[in-house]
Design a protein that fits this description.
The protein has four helices and two strands; from the N terminus they run αββααα. By secondary structure, the chain is an alpha+beta fold. Strand 1 and strand 2 (44-48) form a beta hairpin.
């Protein structure tokens, strides 16, 4: 996908950034909407979560959310040598 526009922003002390209004409108970000952050070796992408289909939600689940169902000692032993 070709570059459409580029803006610079400052990262706050809490690691937050503001997405400029014209970029939000261009890419379809809406107030209160959840955003997927994709980290690659050479870049970071922000995408509105609505761009993902249901199959992608498992991949986006946090490690903490998945860990509550899989961090027993028995699971660790069972999967240790795989």
């Amino acid at each position: 996908m070709p570059l459409v526009e580029m803006k610079t922003v400052k990262i706050t002390e809490k690691g937050q950034i503001a997405i400029p209004r014209d970029i939000r409108e261009l890419e379809g970000f809406e107030e209160g909407e959840r955003v997927a952050i994709l980290a690659f070796e050479d870049r970071v992408e922000l995408r509105p979560l609505k761009q993902f289909n249901e199959r992608m939600f498992t991949a986006l689940a946090s490690e903490g959310a998945l860990a509550k169902d899989w961090l027993s000692k028995e699971d660790e032993v069972a999967w240790k040598n795989l």
